[in-house]
Amino acid sequence: MSVTAVIGSQWGDEAKGKMVDILSQNAHIVARFNGGDNAGHTVVNQYGTFKLRLTPNGFYNSDTICIIGPGVVINLNTLISEIESIQAKGIQLDNRLWVSPRCNVIMPWHPMLESIYEKAKGKSQTGTTRRGIGPTYADKVSYNGIRLFDFRDEYILKEKIQTQLSVKNPIFREFGLKPLEPDRCLAEKIQQYQILAEFVRESFGLLQESLAAGKNILLEGAQGALLDNIWGTYPFCTASVPLAGGAAAGLGIPPGKITRVIGVAKAYTTRVGGGPMPTELFDEASEILQQQGHEFGTVTGRPRRCGWFDADLVQFTSQLNGVDELALTKLDVLDTFESIKIGVGYRSDQKSSSLSHYWEGDAHWLESCKPEYIEVPGWKQSTRNVKNFADLPVEAQDYIRKIEELVGVKVGFVSVGPDRDETIMV
Ligand code: IMP
């Protein structure tokens, strides 16, 4: 039996989808536990190309059950179009897709509230994906959320919509936005729910049975640990818990049952949206990373900010998640560099001789920190077709070993291209 959590070790977009794709081939269950349709990855397989934001990446293995756990927030429209696009390719989802009725639903007012807050923050805005994720989780934790459970009784749903709009519509009026009509919201959501109703069922029992039966379960994290609502660069973070610990609560499985945690990190660093990023580059190297790495957001299309690998951050997130092994992705993007830098800590106080760590301060403090680097030689040749660690250029091997040493975790996988077989098992 294995219960493996695949976690983003940076600010998201670490190419977790590819790792989940590889590992899902032996999985009985693939389960999402956090976030919503702010996540996004493209899956290419024998059935075609799929752009997924919510559906766990394992749907194309006919024996794999996909679970969207209660820690996820659902945009009903997004889920409907994903299911339709999967079914259109002849893939059966009946009895294979389980969406927990405990999931909170993103309602039409959530993106509206988000845009009001983002506008008000001006230059300090979080730079969200504008899917309404933050306000949906905010309503969830303040007992104002609407869950899929509520759709089972139209009277309950109607009452909840009316209550929420009695508070939210005055805000919209105040900010010059058109108030929402409760009856229209109700009709629209009921119609969407009817399409999804057959997939809505609690997965708790199934997961407990599967744990007892020793099945392989893959926990698919969305976003990255540095976007965590507590440990991330708050308020430049997301609203959910993208940590291994979040998988337990977000699915209803005991933490001690997670047998393996894989931290996925790019061989460099990227981030989308606002907030500090100590090793960010603004020169030609940044452009190379962006172009070679196709660093544009999947959900918003925004160019991603690029910089050198930050070992202090990945050491922190590895400790936070209890990472057993790292999957280092997109190593090939570094193929053309003469030399490569690795961030090893920060200078926050010019007088102090010791380096500071990420966890010592907040986002404001991190913004003022200067990264300290070591520089290592590049390998200046393609790694795209390399299948074994020993066949990597010696400088690339040294780069990986250096990362292991600085982070304190072994690298178990190295990805040298987007395809499944462009992966070195170390
Ligand atoms: P939200 O999750 O849409 O509220 O956005 C909050 C912050 O998290 C923003 O900086 C987003 O760019 C970032 N973010 C959210 N989801 C992802 C993701 O899947 N990959 C990378 N960044 C993300």
Rg, nearest Å: 22 Å
Termini distance?
22 Å
Largest sheet: 9 strands, mixed
- Considering DSSP H and I runs of 4 or more, what fraction of the residues is helical? 25-40%
Low-pLDDT stretches are none
Based on DSSP secondary structure assignment, what is the total number of beta strands? 18
Provide the list of bound ligands, each named once: inosinic acid
- The proportion of strand residues reads 15-25%
Secondary structure tally, helices: 12
Gross geometry? globular
Strand order of the largest sheet: 7-5-2-9-1-10-14-17-18
Structural class: alpha/beta
Overall average pLDDT: 95
The run of helices and strands is: EHEEEEEHEEHHHHHEHEEHEEHEEHEHEE
Topology:
Elements: E1 3-8, H1 16-23, E2 29-32, E3 41-45, E4 48-52, E5 65-68, E6 73-74, H2 76-88, E7 97-99, E8 104-105, H3 109-121, H4 133-141, H5 154-174, H6 182-196, H7 204-212, E9 217-220, H8 244-251, E10 260-266, E11 269-271, H9 284-292, E12 305-307, E13 309-310, H10 311-321, E14 325-329, E15 339-347, H11 363-368, E16 370-377, H12 394-407, E17 411-415, E18 423-425
Parallel strand pairs: 1-9, 1-10, 2-5, 2-9, 5-7, 6-8, 10-14, 13-15, 14-17
Antiparallel strand pairs: 3-4, 11-12, 15-16, 17-18
Helix pairs in contact: 2-6, 3-4, 5-6
Inosinic acid (IMP) is lined by residues 11-13, 38-39, 126-129, 131, 133-134, 222-223, 227, 236, 238-239, 272-273.
Notes on the protein architecture:
The chain has 426 residues and is α/β, with parallel strands linked by helices. 32% of the residues lie in helices and 19% in strands. It has helices spanning 16-23, 76-88, 109-121, 133-141, 154-174, 182-196, 204-212, 244-251, 284-292, 311-321, 363-368, 394-407; strands spanning 3-8, 29-32, 41-45, 48-52, 65-68, 73-74, 97-99, 104-105, 217-220, 260-266, 269-271, 305-307, 309-310, 325-329, 339-347, 370-377, 411-415, 423-425. Strands 7-5-2-9-1-10-14-17-18 form a nine-stranded mixed sheet, with helices on both faces. The chain has a three-stranded mixed sheet with strand order 13-15-16. It has a two-stranded antiparallel sheet with strand order 3-4. A hairpin with a 7-residue loop joins strand 17 (411-415) and strand 18. Helix 2 (76-88) runs parallel beside helix 6 (182-196) and helix 5 crosses helix 6. The radius of gyration is 22 Å and the shape is globular. Bound molecules: inosinic acid. Inosinic acid binds at residues 11-13, 38-39, 126-129, 131, 133-134, 222-223, 227, 236, 238-239, 272-273.
